Amino acid sequence: MDSTTRIPVPGERPYEVLVGQRLFAELPELLPGAARVAVLHTPPLKEHADRVAEAFAGAAVLLIEVPDAEAGKSIDVAADCWARLGEAGFTRTDVVVGIGGGAVTDLAGFVAACWLRGVRWVPVATSLLGMVDAAVGGKTGVNTRAGKNLVGSFHPPAGVLCDLELLTSLPPVDLTAGLAEVVKCGFIADPAILDLIEADPRAVTDPAGPQVRELIERAIRVKADVVGDDLRESGLREVLNYGHTLAHAIEKVEDYRWRHGHAVSVGLVYAATLARLAGRLDAAVADRHAAILIALGLPTGYRADAWPQLLAAMRVDKKTRGSRLRFVVLDDVARPAILDGPEDALLAAAYAQVASA
In this structure, are 134 and 194 located in the same domain? Predict the structure, then answer.
């Protein structure tokens, strides 16, 4: 059996992220004393949900099937889950496990955060995106018609499982999409990530290869360092939203049909272009964004005619203050900063450079 890496996430409620293979047996140790366990999962992951149930011998396990991807991140789905918990008599000592990609772990954490004002939970991430982003940090939430992740709670898990075996069954397009969040971590904090990808872009898309594990662990450490210092997004944690202001707008305009990683990829190129036009970022560093993302097969542009819709969507972004848009940008690699209140003309000029026909 491969060794398990344990990455600590410090803060007011510290926990560990476990990275390795065949990790399901770790769950009872992370969630001791539970008489009832709710396992939220999507239809394709029923077999893995059964494995989670088997790990909790002696506990009453409630399997709750939820819609796949962003369709599951809604108040209606969360309400159905709460109804199931109520019917099963869940108490404050009982627990929730979410197994799936980032959408399922966001939902599971939100369900756990609101039930009896907070019960223990563990995300079991089955996608690369979930492992490096959604499952780590304690941000939970659902989407509304107003936008993505606008309703949620900060509710750290009891631990996180990143079972690398699960990546081997992930569709290649989903694995590659998840790498956009890894690239983000490289630009905001860990340039070694960028070097690894540039050295062999093909190798980092092999789910069984050592490069993928190193990238995952590096990205998790970046996020753990940030959220350990700023759980509730009062300052430093904003940098993790690099590329996400436009990305979330694209997802809203697309009615969440686009993969999150694909939207983030375009958002990263836009943020770099914005910083370059604002005189903040060297052109070579801005160009490096697109070069790396293209080498991975990720998109770097979006529809030119969508700009009015995108701008309207960005105005309800979580970083907006009143009528002032705020963007995470770079002054250099590993030097993130905030661009506060850029002029509409600058925003439009940056979009014109990344827009596709």
Answer: no
The DSSP 8-state label assigned to residue 3 in this structure reads P
Q: Which of 169, 189, 204 is a domain's end point?
A: 169
Q: Tell me the residue range of the domain where 163 lies.
A: 5-169
Strand partners, 19: 5, 162
Residues 18 and 132 in one domain: yes
Q: How confident is the model at residue 184 (pLDDT cuts 50, 70, 90)?
A: very high
8 Å CB contact between 72 and 103: yes
Counting the structural domains of the chain, the total is 2
Chain-centroid distance of CA 72 in Å reads: 15
Report helix, strand or coil for 58: coil
Task: Please give the radius of gyration of the chain, using alpha carbons only, rounded to the nearest integer.
Answer: 20
**Cα(15)–Cα(9) distance, rounded to whole angstroms?**
5
Q: Of all helices (H) and strands (E), which one includes residue 161?
A: strand 160-163
CA pseudo-torsion sign 210, 211, 213, 218: positive
Quote the CA–CA distance of 35 and 49 in Å, as a whole number: 17
Residues 198 and 154 in one domain: no
331: exposed, middle or buried (C-beta count within 10 Å: 0-12, 13-18, 19+)?
Answer: middle
Of the three residues 143, 169, 195, the one that is the final residue of a domain is 169
76, 91: one domain: yes
Q: What H or E segment, with its residue span, contains residue 53?
A: helix 46-55
Q: Six-digit token pair at 201?
A: 């872009």
| Cβ contacts of 94 within 8 Å, gap of 6 or more | 34, 35, 36, 37, 38, 85, 119
The CA distance from 336 to 270, in Å, is 15
Nearest to 276 by CA among 356, 325, 332: 332
Residues 163 and 193 in one domain: no
Mean pLDDT of 237-259: 93
| Coil, helix or strand at residue 89 | coil
For residues 50 and 79, state if they share a domain. yes
**3-state secondary structure labels for all residues of 247-263:** HHHHHHHCCCCCCHHHH
Q: Residue 124, SS3?
A: strand
pLDDT in tens, 57-105: 889 999 999 998 888 899 999 999 999 999 999 999 999 999 998 889 9
